[in-house]
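**User:** Here is a favour to ask of a fellow structure person. Please take any protein you like and set down a full record of it. No explanation is needed for now; the record alone will do.

**Assistant:**
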Amino acid sequence: MKRLAYIGKIVEIKTIKGADFIVSATVVCGSGGKWMGTVKKGEFEVGQLVDVFLQDAILPETEEYEFLRPLHFRIAMRKFKKVPSECLIMPLAKNCHMGNFINSHVGDDISEFRGVKKYIKQLPANLAGIALGSFPTNIIPKTDEINFQAAQHMIDKLQGQKYYCTVKADGSSGTIYKTNNHFGCCSRNLEFKPSETTAVWKIANDYELEKSMPAGFAIQFEMVGPGIQKNRLGLDKIDARVFNVWNIEKRCYLDAADAFDFIEKLNMAAVDILVWNKTFNITDDQTLRKMAEGKYDSGYQREGIVIRPMIENFSEGERLSFKVINLLYKD
């Protein structure tokens, strides 16, 4: 697992209004980004090297991290007294499960050394199915949006470009694809055998995608509805919110307008659009955090937002696409 834990350096410590025992610390993690976290007053100082654990990191069940047991050892973004806490900041560990970790440098990825695993939203057993095989990563990329705190290069490149912003649906990842000789339905890690009870196959059957979907494409979406992630969208049945269309032969995502047109022709629902074809000129983190706040129509806090250019492009070899988590969201 990568991008879950880094060696960081504290560059700023600020008091928190109304807080006697905690302060806000800002850490830089090299290519791992710049993050804010709450720490105990007096335990850290500017310039100190620290361990930094990011969103959806699951830490080992050891005595050092026992205080995380009520959270199932998982790191999640929150606000404390209206101040962002986007990571867990810990003193630099002397040891790890693989032995001593010496000569630490800011930006070192220590995910493996610290025994960190990634939290993945799983389908409930009654909505999963019998595996046909692994997710076909040889022809379709998995979805894994980078957090904006680690995507400054993307934010810089997006300046002045036309962009769009969508709501991040709170569900479980699904992919449906069709080639000239195969139709497949997948969760994040597995492809499933056809079944009327498997959630992703229910979606495929409801929309008759095996017939209507053109060969050579894959759609990627959040599976949402009863039994999935507390059904925060408040739906009556299992459904999909599509956010990607992948051209298998050309090995590229469709541009925004083409993708939403593709989704509409399948009579499926896309993720909700908040901003469409506007010029991106956001330079401060607080504006992005504020954009992420809001609620689903059901009244639940939404998980966050995703920001992309209208025309697909890349930044430092990665697809230009990043997410902003709503710090008021709790799962």
Notes: The longest helix spans residues 256-265. The chain has a mean pLDDT of 94. Residues 145 and 178 are 23 Å apart (CA to CA). DSSP finds five helices and 25 strands in the chain.
